[in-house]
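Hi U.,

Before I forget, here's the chain from the pilot set. I'm dumping it here mostly so it's searchable later in email.
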Amino acid sequence: MRFIYLVFVFTFVLTLTGCSSKMIEQPSGTVIHEDKERSDLNGELEGFADEFEVKELYDPFSSYNRAMTSFNDGAYEYVLKPVAEGYKYVVHVEVRESVRNFFNNLYFPTRFVNNVLQGKFHNASEETGRFVINTTIGVFGLFDPAKVHFNIGAHDEDFGQTLGFYGVGSGPHIVLPLFGPSNLRDLLSMYPDVLLSPIDYTERSYWTLSDTWFEYLSIKGLEEVNYISLDMDRYEKMKRDAVDLYPYFRDVYEQYRKKQIEE
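Structure:
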């Protein structure tokens, strides 16, 4: 159902912005972001947007994307951030780190399958080892002994990266409501990744963490608020670096995804 909703949003955008436009990428400043397994993702971005080549960029949805970037920024500033600040005040940092570890461990199937699809069998075997260690010794993933004691890090892969690995282009940039920056390839790739996620409310033949729409929203809300509470200052630093918020976030996202695929 979430995929159908996203496709509806995309179709609606196509209707509103039938005329394509072209924009020029501008050099961007320094990005400070951290954590690739949700938190590590930001660390990969640190200092990454220092230099961008000036080139012609196909951006047919720029008007919509700017409006949605403003909406997402407002949602963050006036809803997510205040809630995350209250959550941070009440919940100790070690508990919040354990919650992050728990969610990272749940996404093992997505990482494993996409590593296999890309022929990265060594990474897939390490992902399996991480999952077994963290689920057992790490008490259902609340702790990360695989990384701390065995030096086995996560190999973050998703279906968008898999398509990019086989040469599928990113397509036009699309900013999703609340999800943030994306593109056509990554938007369509969300559905296969959702099928591998144990966090879902649709009827499945296997166990899922949530069984209803309300449970799903509650769990995803907790995940997002917990993530923000562990990295409160990074978004503000990114905004300070941005002369124009939308093209800055767009450039960082597209360059980062390109870097992930090349790895």
